[in-house]
Design a protein that fits this description.
Region (Disordered): 47-71, 89-108, 148-185
Keywords: Hydrolase, Metal-binding, Nucleotide metabolism, Zinc
Pathway: Purine metabolism; IMP biosynthesis via salvage pathway; IMP from AMP: step 1/1
Distance between the termini: 113 Å
Radius of gyration: 37 Å
Shape: globular
Binding site for substrate: 414, 483-488, 683, 758-761
Binding site for Zn(2+): 412, 414, 680, 757
Structural class: alpha/beta
Helix content: 40-55%
Number of strands: 18
Length: 850
Amino acid sequence: MGSDASDPSYKLHLACAALVGASVAAASGYYLHCRSLASQLGSAAAALPPPHHQNPGDAPPPRAAAGSSSLPDLSSLYSVGAAAAAAGGSRGYSVAEEEDDDDGEGGCIGELAADAADCLPVPLGLPRLHVGPDGNKQLVRSSSNRRVGIIKPNSPKSPVASASAFESVEGSEEDDAAQQNGKLDNGYVKINGNIEGEQKGNKVLENGTAVPLAAASLIRSHSISNDLHGVQPDPVAADILRKEPEQESFIKLLTAPHEIPSPDEIEVYKLLQKCLELRDCYLFREEVAPWEKEVINDPCTPKPDPNPFTYIPEPKSEHVFQMVDGVVHVYADKDYTDRLYPVADATTFFTDLHYMLRVISAGNTRTVCHNRLNLLEHKFKFHLMLNADREFLAQKTAPHRDFYNVRKVDTHVHHSACMNQKHLLRFIKSKLRKEPDEVVIFRDGTYMTLKEVFESLDLTGYDLNVDLLDVHADKSTFHRFDKFNLKYNPCGQSRLREIFLKQDNLIQGRFLAELTKQVFSDLTASKYQMAEYRISIYGRKQSEWDNLASWIVNNELSSENVVWLVQIPRLYNVYKEMGIVTSFQTLLDNIFLPLFEVTIDPASHPQLHVFLKQVVGLDLVDDESKPERRPTKHMPTPEQWTNVFNPAFSYYAYYCYANLYTLNKLRESKGMTTIKFRPHAGEAGDIDHLAATFLLCHNISHGINLRKSPVLQYLYYLGQIGLAMSPLSNNSLFLDYHRNPFPMFFQRGLNVSLSTDDPLQIHLTKEPLVEEYSIAASVLPLSLLSPCSSYANTNAHWIGKNYYKRGPTGNDIHKTNVPHIRIQFRDLIWRDEMRLVYQNNVILPDEVDQ
């Protein structure tokens, strides 16, 4: 045996046996492989539609593009395989033929596939696609019922799921597994934890139910970016921008689909209903909505009015009026005894105000409103977690429009501080250099030139700088409203304020008019910024209205970017101590009687009549932190108010509201413009300021004290009352910037906007509103800010012709740069809250409040 093993012939026989066995195994394996391949190709050929027979000479039908325009068409590879399968099936594919065509049929298929791949190269960095024979992307749905994390939508820059702005970078293991699983498409989370695929098209995904979403389609750019400096564009982002217009969709997560309120909550909702009904009873609304009066014939950029101060005579009406207990009564003629436009009397108002104060102080009401506000805030955060990337994508696909070229409206800025400190410094130096001998002031029994004024202050133009000007607010003004007002005095000198920042002075406000025109020029140059400037009427004498109107008209202070508001400082106690007024009634007479006179007979005050066409609102201003006595139900009439104490805020607010309500009714009956009541409120002081403005006002400035009252905050949300907030101004006066409630109000859905208040004291740049927004976006936890505000006096060209409609139908993303997704979410949540408060017994309007 040992000798046989060492025999060379034995080794040769053993090697031959091994070779024969390996050959038989290889042949068997190849045979099985060919049979399996033939079976698969035959099945694929059977699944294809019958071939299209065309006449000889006809052009071949065009092949539909598979996939997107930026991705290669892979359907040719499958068509090659299908053709080969059909050919193989027709020949029977015997074993002998397979062996004979070992280098023929299989090689042909490989060559065709290689040629197709060479013709359609795949760009580098492109994510791997799951495609089928038709070239379409396959959706792989998970049937697992285990609890999983939220599947993040893909961002434009990355093919993998991305984290939203409010999520932590460190996720759970389940989140990591979900991100690594390339087969999971964009999805949403149902209540039971199942993952469902994303519904395409105009749908809102609502716990597994597709709900129609009425939103205008996006117009995406079809331009292809060039290869600049050898940098290749991101293929995924390019694909997004080349997509055909489609409807936006967003993911909605309902945590409580069917809310059944408890008996205690039902009682609270009835109280809230009563408060909202009281507001509807007081608020002035025009008989014909402003958008119904507008006639837009030219869709292009509106042309400025070449003669905004042209006086067109209008006939005098037969109306007569008289002041009764602080409120003007209007009659049709001198023989008519019935009042035309009745308004709630003071006793009724103060009774309703005390009812409001009882509601907002009740414990059960505070608890329910606090819970609803927290739920609103969390709903918004969930919305961002699910849809932040979709909103960002919608903004990117809006052509041309971005933050810089969207219209921004500064709805709260005081005219005397509308310029920045560097602008004022340059203007003062310019006047001191060019007009040193101009007589500008009368002081101490003598007239003084501008040069003499600065010599009396021991100053020269070279000495002046921003620090010496000292008009910028600092920490010394915190909780010191008196020191803040002193910042209006350049170099701490009231005479410089009178010369440069007053319109009623020896030079008839010429310097202030020139400075105002320069600010107008800056707004016009920026093109995308508008402002509502507040200018003062003090109520010391009735001629103030004519003086102000003549200053506006004579200096031609008009701009397409600017409208005016009139602010009334609450300084009755100062005027009383100075002997200027004898009672509060005198103050009301000086403020409102000229307005009724010019409305009835425009020829009596022609310049005032022209000026009022540009006035859109009335404001109340002063330090709200001053202590005051809460008004009772039975307050003395204005004629009886002869003491030196300043009336409470709500006392001022009611008599301004009542007279303005009557004035607006009269002006509307004559086809004239109306004036909205938009006071400062809630910056400091008592909470009843905000209760009074809830009943009487269209919108307010500041409102930061709403953080102290969850009931009022919820009511302001339900009423969608506008809040023009100024965090930088509050930071200098009453509230640290990081404690400002603006981001909380924004997340909860209150109708908030940012404004500048006093650029002279607060801001440093030439564009204070952009500065306000940029600081808020950098410091506060905000994901999306829209500086475009939809006010009734805003030109429809800037924000879309349907700006007055609620929901996405009133939004034009190409003008506002606000995604339909955000508007739709806000509208759905607000409607749900209103139906909950009214227990589904309410008809919600499709238009915003006037």
